[in-house]
Specification:
The chain is of the alpha/beta class and 500 residues long. The chain has two domains: 6-241, Rossmann fold (3-Layer(aba) Sandwich), CATH 3.40.50; 247-494, P-loop containing nucleotide triphosphate hydrolases (Rossmann fold). The chain is 34% helix and 25% strand. It has helices spanning 44-52, 74-79, 97-101, 116-129, 145-158, 175-190, 202-208, 232-240, 294-301, 324-329, 339-343, 350-355, 359-362, 370-383, 400-414, 430-445, 457-463, 486-493, and strands at 6-15, 18-28, 33-37, 59-64, 67-68, 82-85, 163-167, 194-198, 211-216, 219-225, 258-267, 271-279, 283-288, 309-314, 317-319, 332-335, 363-364, 367-368, 418-422, 449-453, 466-471, 474-480. The strands form five sheets. The protein has a six-stranded mixed sheet with strand order 6-7-8-3-9-10, sandwiched between helices. A six-stranded mixed sheet has the order 16-19-20-13-21-22, with helices on both faces. Strand 21 (466-471) and strand 22 form a beta hairpin. The longest helix has 16 residues, at 175-190. It is globular. The relative contact order is 0.11. It is a peripheral membrane protein.
């Protein structure tokens, strides 16, 4: 094979004396797709941030095309053609789509002013090559998470990336958008672009990657060609250092009476005549393509989206939910799709984020009982295996999957009667998925009614007792347990029918 384009040798990184990486090496060749895998907290994102210059290494060496790079800062990294699309999106909501694509590199005219026409046209051409229908003049705040992901990809392409790092690039994408992205990865590879691909979706690793490097607990385990990896189980066992059973291990529990009824729920241009119920102990899956109205149902139930018409009943009693505080008082919990924007207080600690909606529980007259708050936060840190140095660590420094487990802990403490989970395992590794699904099953056993929205069909099939499939703001169909298959979900999502 040709000479490496980038080599990281014996990289070590410490934060406040705690090692995040220990003696990690990585070699990437031109025109290859190199997977980097490991559990949440294994050090993948830290290694990539060192490569992009966002973090400085504590020790070790970096070589680009055989030459040692003495100072890998963000400016130098970008100059070398290294670009990263992070799992947590970096899109400026107050700018247009085109402005985001060309952020920092806007084309200018002879007068030195931004050439808006050229910029919008160039953005339009990039999106056309990605088979994405997105208006360059649209404000970024008005587009979906999936579309924001595509904006980031378009930005890297516009800057002629030589090494493209993709950190969970499909975590918010539909099946169709994922296929488009994977085709793009292959196309970029054929053009000589090197791609570092980080994903917890094992099928993607096997589909597009040539080589894989495994990290575990901040240490290098091994690198090998994908042709030498027997199957998903083999790769997962290298990641977690133990045998993995099914992610789901769902326990069948008795389904009780309806706890929630939604009748004729509508919101102009978003939802149209939505009707369903949720029973105690039931896991109700909501599937459909991105933009089909799945998240909007959750937002309407939790008071984040004002409905035009329709009724919500809990225990057969009509309720008015004007905001999240009303929903919480009625026993609802909501793990939102975008933890960075609507789930976390990033500058606060793990403890603060876990206890956030539960402060009344810890209040003794005017003051918060810190001892009780800390104990319960510690208990849930252990219960969900949240990998953090302590509960006083700032939550923004945790990996995405560990942040997600902290949010789920928050609602478990709340002891909701109805729990809404929107993409509960987005950006979560296979080991953490099993832990999260085990907790979801326990909640169902306790009689909690659960609504689970997911873009990953395997999650819907593996966990749902019943599934609603959304299409263009309406319910395209409802599937009972024996009928919940990937094929049936996709048929309904694309407007087809299914046979009984």
């Amino acid at each position: 094979m040709n000479s490496p384009i980038i080599e990281l040798k014996h990289i070590t990184k410490s934060f406040s004396g705690v090692k995040a990486l220990t003696d990690v090496s990585l070699t990437v060749h031109p025109g290859s797709v190199h997977a980097l895998v490991g559990e949440n907290g294994a050090g993948k994102s830290t290694l990539m941030k060192i490569l992009t210059g966002a973090y400085s290494k504590s020790s070790g060496e970096i070589y680009y095309k055989g030459e040692k790079v003495e100072n890998m800062d963000p400016k130098n990294s970008k100059k070398l053609g290294i670009h990263c699309i992070y799992q947590e999106l970096n899109v400026a909501n107050h700018l247009t789509v085109a402005e985001n694509v060309f952020l920092g590199s806007q084309p200018v005219n002879k007068m030195g002013f931004i050439d808006w026409k050229q910029m919008n046209q160039a953005a339009k051409e990039i999106f056309a090559s990605l088979q994405i229908n997105l208006d360059p003049k649209q404000m970024a705040k008005d587009v979906s998470i999936a579309q924001k992901q595509m904006i980031e990809i378009a930005r890297a392409i516009s800057q002629d990336a030589k090494i493209l790092i993709m950190d969970e690039p499909t975590s918010s994408l539909s099946e169709r958008e994922t296929e488009i992205l994977l085709s793009l990865v292959t196309e970029l590879k054929n053009k000589g672009v090197s791609i570092l691909y980080i994903s917890h979706r094992m099928d993607e690793i096997f589909k597009v990657c040539d080589t894989v490097t495994i990290l575990r607990d901040g240490k290098y385990i091994k690198s090998l060609p994908m042709s030498e990896v027997k199957n998903v189980d083999t790769l997962v066992e290298l990641m977690v250092n133990r045998k993995m059973e099914s992610y789901f291990n769902k326990v069948d529990v008795p389904i009780g009476e309806p706890i929630l009824k939604v009748q004729n729920l509508s919101k102009t241009g978003v939802l149209n005549d939505i009707n369903f119920d949720l029973r105690t102990g039931e896991i109700l899956g909501i599937a459909g393509l991105v933009g089909s109205g799945r998240t909007e149902i959750a937002q309407a139930l939790f008071g984040m989206l004002k409905k035009d018409t329709g009724e919500i009943l809990i225990d057969d009693k009509k309720v008015e939910i004007k905001g999240p505080s009303d929903a919480i008082k009625l026993g609802l919990g909501f793990v939102t799709e975008n933890r960075k924007e609507t789930g976390l207080v990033l500058k606060q600690t793990v403890r603060d984020n876990i206890s956030l909606p539960n402060l009344r529980k810890y209040t003794n007259k005017l003051f918060i009982n810190k001892t009780v708050e800390k104990k319960e936060s510690e208990d849930y840190k252990k219960k969900l295996n949240i990998k953090a140095r302590s509960i006083e660590q700032t939550i923004s420094t945790l990996s995405g999957g560990n942040q997600q487990k902290a949010i789920i802990s928050r609602w478990m403490i709340q002891e909701p009667r109805i729990l809404i989970l929107d993409e509960p395992c987005r950006g979560v590794d296979v080991g953490a998925k099993a832990e999260i699904f085990a907790q979801i099953s326990k909640l169902a056993e306790q009689g909690v009614g659960i609504i689970m929205i997911s873009s990953e069909l395997a999650e819907i099939v593996g966990m749902s007792d019943r599934t609603i499939v959304m299409r263009e703001g309406t319910i395209a169909g409802e599937l009972e347990k024996d009928m919940i298959t990937s094929d049936n979900i996709l048929k309904l999502a694309f407007g087809g029918g299914i046979s009984a």
